[in-house]
Structure prediction request, 923 residues.
Amino acid sequence: MSDQLKNAEEYTSGTSRRSFLKQSSLITAIALAPNAVVKAAEEGLDEKIAAAIEQMPLNVTINGVKQNLKIEPRVTLLDLLRERLQLTGTKKGCDHGQCGACTVHIDGQRVNSCLTLAVTTEGKQVTTIEGLAHGEELHPMQQAFLDHDGFQCGYCTPGQIMSAVCCIREGHADSPEEIREYMSGNICRCGAYSNIVDAIMDVKQGGKKV
Amino acid sequence: MKNDIQNKPINRVDGRAKVTGAAKYFAEIEVPGMTHCVMVTSTITRGSITSIDTKQAERAPGVLAVLTHLNMPAIPGWAADNSKPSSGGEKLRLLGSDKILFNGQPIALVIADTLERAQYAATLVKTIYKKEAHKTDLAKHKTEVHMPSRLGDYSRGDANAHSTAPVTLKADYVIPIEVHNPMELHGVLALWDGEDKVTVWTKTQGVKDTQETITAAFKLEEKNVQVHSEFVGGGFGMGLRTWPQDIVVIAAAKKLKRPVKLVMTRQQMFTMVGYRPYTLQHISMGATADGKLSGMYHEAIGETASYEDFTEATVRMTRFMYACPNVTTKYRIVPLDRGVPIWMRGPGEATGAFALESAIDEMAYKVNMDPVEFRILNFAETDPERNKPFSSNHLKEAYQLGAEKIGWFKRNRQPRSMKEGDWLVGYGMSTGVFGAYRGGSTCRAQLNGDGSLVLQSATADIGPGTGTAMVQIAHEVTGLPIEKIRFELGDSSLPPSGSQGGSATVSTVGSAVYDVCTALKEMMAAKGLSFENGAVKGNIKDVLAADGKPYLEVTKESKGGAEQQKYSMYSFSIHFTEVHVHPGTGVVRVKRVVTVADSGRIVSPKTAASQMIGGVTGGIGMALTEEAIIDHRYGRFVNNNLADYHVPVSADVPHIETIFIDKPDPIINPMGSKGMGEIALIGFSAAVANAVYHATGKRIRELPITPDKILAV
Prediction:
C-alpha cells in the first residue's frame, strides 16, 4: 500500500463528502497512475475545483429586496445574513436551533435561520428584524418591547420580536399562559419573560395589525 | 437627589437600537479583509499532545493558517511570567505547550477567509494524545483541599456553640456546576496596525480591564491598545476577565497581518469562559428553644482549576446576616483538571445563601416559629462581623411588605397542608444580601452649543441599562430633558471606569456622573450660564465662541471617602414565592413571586424592575433546572448545549412582582443608591427549596430540585 493511500485511509475515518472525494481520487490515481492526477491531489487542486463547483445560485427576497447570490450549499441562512449581507440584527446564540435568537420569517412563518440552509430559501420572502419597521415608525411589537422593557442586553430581542409577531399571527396569544407556551423557543438569559409576555398581550389587545 | 421624590420610569435610551437590530455587538463590526477563526479543542482531560497533524487542514480551500503549539508565536507577557500556581500544578499556556490541563482546551486555531471554510478545515486537524489520569469530580476529591490565599477562616465567640445549643441542626448542601450562558457567544475581533498597535472588539464587562490585559500580554503602550465593547449580549460574570483564547486570537491576527474574528461555539462556552463552581457545604446551627440563634458553623468546598486559584465569598453572609454571638466559617478549594471558574451572578454569595437560608428555614420549623418571625427575631441591628452600623438597612420593612403582598400570613404553616387540584401548594421565602460598593470612576461632560449634553466614561452595559441610569442621574442634576443627554461607554479611550461587576456601576459611575454634572454647573456659573427649566440659560454660543471651543468640557474623578470605613454597606432582598408541586410526577412550578429590594434610592425604576425580574428568573433556573453534568470517566460535559442545559424559558416563569423600598442610603454616594444586580438572584433558590418543603414536607438540599429528588423516598 502506498503512503498516500495509507494517509488517505487515516484521514477518511470521518464520513465527510470531501474526504470521500479525496479518497476516491487517490484510488483512481493509483489505479490509473497518471502522474498529473496524483500531483493535482497533492497540491489540493481537487479541493479548489470542488470549491469552485460548489457555488450555487440563490434568488431570494430579503426585506423586500431581491438578492441574486452565489453561495455554497452549506451556508446557513443565519450566516448568510450576518456574514455576507451585514444584516446583523439576526443573532447567533447557539447555531443548533435551541435558543431562537436567529428567528426570522420565511414566507411569513417564524423559522430558526441557523437550521435553514440558505439555498432552501430559493424564491422565498425572508423578513428579518431590519425589515419589520416602516421607515422611522416602529412595528407595534417593537414599540411594545420598548415600552414594557421586554429586554435587557438586547441580544435575544430581535428573535423574540420576530417570534412574538408570529405568535399573534398564528393565534397563539390569547392568554399569558398561551404566550408563555408558544414563546418558549426563544431564550432570554437576562430573564425579561415577565415583561415580554406583557408586551405581547398589549399588542394583541391593542388590535393593531401585526 | 437624596429627597423624597421618586424617579420616573423611562424607556431604555438604547432601546430603539436593540429592538430594530441596529445595535452592533462585537462580532457584527465590519472590518475589511476580515478572516474567521475556529478553535480545535482537546478531547482528553489531562495529558499532552504527542502529535498534531495540520497538513490537510492547511491545504483546505481558503485556509490562511493553522496555529498550534508548534508554530504559535510566543505571547511576550506570558513568557515573562514565571509565577507558579499555588496548587503546585502547571500554568496554563494556551498553544504555548503540548500540555492539556482540561477537556475542551483549545489546541489549534484554524483561520480561513470564510466561516464555513474555517469550520470545515478545523475538522481535518488530527491529534494524538498521551493521556494521564484526571480528576474532575469534586465529591470524589473533596478531601484534597487547599487553603485559598484569600477569604480565610473566620470565628467569633465559642466555636462549639452551634452543636451544644438546646436545638441543633446539621445539614449538607450541594450546588452543581452552573454556566453563565449569556445569549451572545463570546469572542474577539482583532485588527493590528503594524507591530505595536491593535484595536480589539470583544465581549467584555470592562474595556479598561481588557485593555490592561492585552497591553501586558503584548508589552504594548496603553495608548496603542483600543478596546471596544459598546453593546454586550449579557455577561453575568463571564466577561469579568480577558480569557487566554482571546489573547491567542489577537496574537494570530498579528502573525497573519490580517484582522481575525473568533466567535466561540455554545459548546465552547461551557469549557473556557468560566462557570459557577460545584460546591459542597455543611452547616451546623444551634438555637435556644425560644428561637434565638446561639451558634453557626458554615463550611464550603469549591472546585478550582489545577492551574489557577478561584475564590468567592461563599460563606460570607453567615458571618453578618443574623445576630448570632458564635459564628465560625471555613472556605476551601480543590484544584481539579477543569477550566477555571469565574464569578457567576450573585457569585459565591448565591451559593452560600442557598445553604444558609435553607438552614434558617429548617431551624424556624424546629423551634416552631414562622420563618419570617424567626428572621426578625434574629435581625442584626448592627453588623456583627465588623461591629459597625449599617449605612442603611430596611429589612424589617421589606419582610413585612413582601409577606403582605403574597399573603404569607394567610397560609397554613403546616407542611403538606395546602392543595390546589392535584397539586401540592407551598410558600417559601428567603433573604439575599450583597455588599454595596462604590469604586472609583472618571466621567467627562461636554455641553454643546445646542444645549445637548454628552457624558463619557469607559464603563460597560451588559444589560442592566447603564446608559439609561446615567442619563437619568444627569437629568436629575441638570434638569435637561432625557432626549438632550447622551451617555457614551464601552470604549477604552474614554475616561476610566472599573468593570461592570459586583452590582457597583450605578453607585460608582453614577457618582462620577453626579459629580461631573455638579462641576459643570459650577463652571457654567462662572461664565454666567445656568440650567433653567430644562435648558441652558444665558448665551452659551457666545461663551463658546469667546473660548474658541466646540463645547464646554469638564472631567471629574469620583470615589468614596472615609465614610466607607465607618459603615457596613449592604443591599438586601427578600424573595417570597408560591410553588406548586405535583406529587405524582415530582414536577415543581413556580407560580408566584414577590421580590422586595432594599437598594437605596432607585435611579431608574423601569430598568431596575427588569433587573430584579431577571435575577429571579436566573434564580428559578438555579433552583429547578440548571446543572452542567460531567461524565467523570472522560472529564467531558454531557449536556453542553441549550437543549440539555435548561436555562429557564418563558413557560417556566410566572408574572414577577417587584417592590422597592426606595429610600436613599444616606452614606454611600450622592444618589443614595445601592446595588441590585446580585441581590436579585441571591437567596432565590432557597426560597424555592423552602416552598417545596412547605408543599411536600421534604427538604431538598441539592440543587437543582428536579422531579427525581422530589419523588425519591
Remarks:
- Chain A has three domains: 3-53, 56-131, 140-206.
- Chain A touches chain B through 70 residues (CB under 8 Å).
